[in-house]
Structures are given as structure tokens and as C-alpha cells.
Amino acid sequence: MPVEIVVDAMGSDKAPESEIRGAILACRTLDVHVALTGPEDILAPALETALGGRRFGARLPIRIVHASEWITMDDKAASAVRSKRDSSMRVGLKLVREGKADGFFTAGNTGAAMATAKMVLGGLSGVDRPALATIMPSMYGQPALLLDVGANVDSDPENLVQFAVMGSMYARNVLKVSNPRVGLLSIGEEDSKGNSLTRDTLPILRTIKGINFIGNVEGRDLFNGTADVIVCDGFVGNVALKTSEGVAKLVSFTLRESLKSTVTSQVGALLSRTAFNAFKKRLDYSEYGGAPMLGVRGVCIVGHGSSNDKAVMNGIRVAAEFAQAEVNSGIEAALVKL
């Protein structure tokens, strides 16, 4: 039976066009239904235009749920969540809370999305703080899940232990890693390395049954396949994520410029276009669909603000996979045993 995923149609930098095109693409390629939240007077004509006329989309399982307001990237998260009570984010997450939809995706204001999800959905039993996770591409195929990447600037050892359990459960049930290796991000592999947070957390993680903890990992291990799940506090994780995005752009730009610099390299570029496109695809955030928010009572996926239609489609796909995998019940069951 198809799941229904709510898409905040007013979230991204190019809203609502990217969200609408992504929803159409998802409904044509995936076994999902989509509900678009936002002002109906904006979404209805935009959807009809994207479909090439109403009759061309008559059979697509897309509906519009009216929301009179939306939160912009420039809004301060805390005040916007309180003041915009009929925002496209809040309306969409309420559909999930009430069981009228199976998951939610937004490419909007990340801070507002996290605050709204915490308020509307609430937390899972045993989870003190939700965590935002993201997929990091690997040199050897299987990507790593990094969390937290920004939901919590400050964390304590108990939070990191919960992140490890949640990340392991997500990797097992959604990413289909049979026995995910969990690493603690630090500045060295030795137990004595790191700050007080990592040194206090490491011995606790060694005692946790049900996760395959492999010890400390370093920043370079984000991409070399050493671990399937990498745990850190949100400050470190966000810096690691943004640095990685910057390096990926630098490498792509430098390689492209080098290939255009001489006639010989231009010929080489034409001959290696397939390989170059494959390289770009491995580093492209739009392929991974967005960051799951783990620890809330429901499915919430947060995408990049510059998400295009492919990124929105993959965000819908990830939300559907998350909803069907029953990750949250597994997390609660695992945390009860701690």
C-alpha cells in the first residue's frame, strides 16, 4: 500500500516550483502519494502549469492542503514557529501527528523545521534530544551516516549514546546495513584522545549491547568506509558537514577548470565525460534526499535549501523508506534496554 508523504511546498529557495516538480517526479517513479502544504491560491495554478494542464495530472496522487503562512530562510526560527501558527511546516507536521500522512519533507529553514517537529511531533520515549543525521559519501560505495549535524550545539555523553543507538537502528533498517559499525568522532583513534565529552562517552559506548561500537574514528574516516555510523555533537557535526560540502564544490570546480584549460585536456574531458558525471553524482547532495531527524515521534526529513526537483523526489523517497521501516519503534525498544 502506498504511503503518503507531506511536502512543505514553500520551503526551498525556489519554492514552490522545485517542490511541485519533485512531487510530480516522485509520484511518477515511486509508489507514493504526496500532499503539498502551502497557500492553495499559489500552489493550485503552479501545479496545473507544471502538469501541463489539469487533465494531464488527473491520475497523479497529489493533493494540496491549504496553509496560509510559510516560514522563510530569513525568519528567526524560534519567533517564526510561535507566530506563524498556520505555516506550511506546522500544517504538514500536524498531518503526520494525526496519522493522516506517513512522513514529512521540507527544504526550508532548518532551525524552524527542527523546532516545529519537536513541538508538533514530540520526542520518542527514552530520547532526551533528537538528532539530525546526514549521509556522507564513501570511497568504497556504502556511505556513512553522520549524526548529530546541527540539532544540538551542546551534548552530553548520554545524548551521544542515544545518537549511537538511533543511528545504528536507522542504518540497519533504512540503509540496510546488517551490522552497522558505530564510531565516535574524535581527534585520534586512541581512547585517551579527544575532549572531555568524547573521553567520557567512549567507555559508556563500549558497554552498550546491541550496537557494533568500534571506538574512536577521525575526520578522514568520514569518507573511507571505516564506520557505517559516526557519532558527534551537533557543533562538530555541522562544521564537518559544511566543510565537506565546501571541499566537494572546490574539487568539482578545480577539476572542471583544469579539464577546460588546454585543447588536449578538453579532448580528454570529452572522452571522460561519463566518469566525470559519475564523480559529480557521488558528491551530489540531491542524490541522498535530505537529513532524517531521529528521535521525534514521526518521520521528518530536512533537505538542502537549494534542493532541486531531483533532491525533493529523493527526500520523498527517503521519507517513505523511513516510514515503512518502522525505525522509531525499534529505537524506543533499544533505549529501554540501556
Describe the structure concisely for a colleague.
Helix content is 46%, strand content 16%.
Unreliably modeled segments: none
Report the sheet-strand fraction.
Answer: 15-25%
What do we call the CATH topology of the largest domain? Answer: Isopropylmalate Dehydrogenase
| Name of the level-1 CATH class of the largest domain | Alpha Beta
Biggest sheet strand order reads: 3-2-1-4-11-10-5-6-9-7-8
Shape: globular
Number of helices: 12
What's the structural domain tally?
A: 2
Q: Could you spell the SSE succession in H and E letters?
A: EHEHEHHEHEEHEHEEHHHEEHH
Which architecture of the largest domain per CATH? 3-Layer(aba) Sandwich
Oligomer: single chain
Class of secondary structure makeup = alpha/beta
Helix fraction, binned, reads 40-55%
CATH homologous superfamily designation of the largest domain = Isopropylmalate Dehydrogenase
N-C termini distance: 35 Å
- What is the strand tally? 11
Mean pLDDT: 89
Q: What's the Cα radius of gyration?
A: 21 Å
Biggest sheet architecture: 11 strands, mixed
